[in-house]
Amino acid sequence: MNFYHGLAERMRWQLVSQVGAANLHLATNELSPEDLGEAIRYVASHEIAHAVGLPHNQRANFVYPPESLRDPEFVRQNGHSASSVGRTRFNYVAQPGDGVPPERRVGVWDKFAVLWGYRVIPGATTPEEELETLNQWIVERADQPWYRFGSALFGMDVEWDPYRMTEGISSDPILAARYGMRNLMGASESLMEWILAPGDDYYELETHHLQLLTQWNRYAEHAAAAVGGSSTHHKRFGEDGPVYEPIPREYQIEAMDFYDEFILQTPGWALDLAQLRRLEHAGVVERVRAYQELGVQRLLNHARLARLIEQEAFLGDNAYRPADMLDDARAMIWREVSEGEPIDTFRRNMQRAYLQQAHHLLHEAESEHWAPPRSGNLRVGNNNDPPLNADLHIAQSDIRPLIRDQLQLLRGELQAALDAGVGDRMTRIHLEDAIVRINGTIGG
């Protein structure tokens, strides 16, 4: 097993951004040998698990309730994930004062996977003769989520299961992300006090600040995956129930509320000039724009809209209808218009990202050849999951009519705001420009 020199530094970034607020002895630019050794022990155990055949199991990260992850005794016995091989790092759910130990634990799924892969089955002399027993071990545990497997989902187009996202934990990933944001904002507020000493340069401040933004983006990924999403429970024929079930409408709306509060709003926690002007003379506005543009693109992603359309087709009123989601997104992103408030620089940039994404969906996002959306390989013989891929024909779906409807509604709202009078000059200029952009997209 090889370790890169940057591993210790990376561990410090993640410890500070995820659990530093709840474990002040970890909020430092120089971990003690014991704390650094504990962090490296986790990495080593993760890689050793791969060496004995265990793959990344994201599903096992999302099985314990948030209240259990804040319970010191529960975490001491079980860790914060059912697998140390899942792509997650530390327990960002635990809050200051909980007294939850930050150390990782070998999970219940890890122990079961080793048993499943290595235990001798008396009387079986060939792999085929082992199958019945191996299958029985899985089926008899099927109602216990900590024994389930699900690979990670990577890429904006295929982030559709909130219980299989990388770097996440808890059976309630949205509430977990709220707790994570509390810790992250606490870390941002105390960052200079934690990691700088007289005579230091600002390398540590810069790298930790960027790690906080990276962690912020992770929570955006976790929340967005629930919108139009489904949960996965891999099964074979003979087991009851579906493999894929839609995320309940109410939970999708809860994810949107998180997105509104923490992703679409101007991130004041990341705008401390006392920190930023020690790092650069300019660049903050553009950096935040890039992250919030990602947030808008993720929410208005063509594959997400296609999944919402399909859920509506099968579930009707029980679905989070795509028109309702787009109404909610428009209201969140353009809130100042209905409230008659000035729009700050960061929100203006994000609103233009919304208009650009709408233009992309109406005029640019299209496959170039005929092919129906593939549904992947059969799950009975392969664990690949069905992606909604570039072969989705947006021009023949409801996506473009839905986006055109949103722009028409928005144009009317912007014009009404201008007619009522806008006192802030930059807000007025921005709204006038937005109408010009909408006209350029759908015609005036």
Describe what this molecule looks like in 3D.
The protein is 54% helix and 1% strand. The chain has 17 helices and 2 strands. The protein has helices at residues 7-19, 33-51, 66-69, 72-78, 108-118, 127-139, 173-195, 203-224, 249-264, 273-276, 284-299, 302-315, 322-333, 335-339, 345-363, 399-420, 425-442; strands at residues 230-232, 244-246. It has a two-stranded antiparallel sheet. Helix 7 (173-195) packs parallel to helix 9, helix 9 packs parallel to helix 13 and helix 15 (345-363) runs antiparallel to helix 16. The longest helix is centred in the middle third of the chain and has 23 residues, at 173-195. Residues 368-383 and 385-390 have low confidence and may be disordered.
Would you spell out the secondary-structure blueprint of this structure?
Blueprint lengths: L6 H13 L13 H19 L14 H4 L2 H7 L29 H11 L8 H13 L33 H23 L7 H22 L5 E3 L11 E3 L2 H16 L8 H4 L7 H16 L2 H14 L6 H12 L1 H5 L5 H19 L35 H22 L4 H18 L2
Antiparallel strand pairs: 1-2
**Spatial arrangement of strands, main beta sheet:** 1-2
Let me know the largest β-sheet.
2 strands, antiparallel
Q: How would you sum up the global shape?
A: flat
Poorly predicted ranges? 368-383, 385-390
Radius of gyration: 24 Å
User: N- to C-terminal separation?
Assistant: 63 Å
Estimate the mean pLDDT confidence. 93
Query: Count the strands?
Result: 2
Helix fraction, binned, reads: 40-55%
The succession of helices and strands, N to C, reads: HHHHHHHHEEHHHHHHHHH
